Amino acid sequence: MATISIPTKNAKTVDAKALAALDDKLSKRFIALDPDGYFLIYVDREAGLLCAKHFTNTIDDKGLACDPVTGKPLSVRGGSDRPSSQLFTGRTAKELCMKIFENKENPCPISYLDHAAYLGREFVRAELALIQGNEYIQD
Q1: pLDDT digits over 12-45, tens only?
Q2: How far apart are CA 31 and CA 98, in angstroms?
Q3: DUF4346 domain: which residues (predicted)?
C-alpha cells in the first residue's frame, strides 16, 4: 500500500500501511458474541449481490457460540452443514443494511451495537470487492 496525499487545506498525509496495521490489531480484540446469532458474508458475482446468511446460536457459560439444537460449540473452522435462518441480499452495503435493520415484518437479528457496526464495515468491504473484482474474505 502506498502513502496517499489528500489535497485539502492543512491536509495530513495518510499512511495506508499504518492504518492497515491498526485495523489488524483492532481485529484481534475480544468481543462478546451476539446471542441473536452470526452472519457469513459473501459476494455473488454472477448475480452482482452482497449476501449475508444469518445463523442462530446460543452462548454458553464460557462465552462460546453453540448450536441451539445440539448445545455443542460451533467450529471456528466451518465445515458445518447447519442451515441458515435467513439469507439477506443487496446490491450495495446500504441496501443490505436496510434490509437487515429496517425490515418492519421481521425483527432485526442483531442485538449488539458492536455487531451491527462490524457488519456495516464488512458490507462496505464486500461491496468494494464486488466493484473492484477483488476477492472478499470476511474478517
Answers
A1: 788 889 988 998 899 888 888 899 999 999 999 9
A2: 24
A3: 33-139
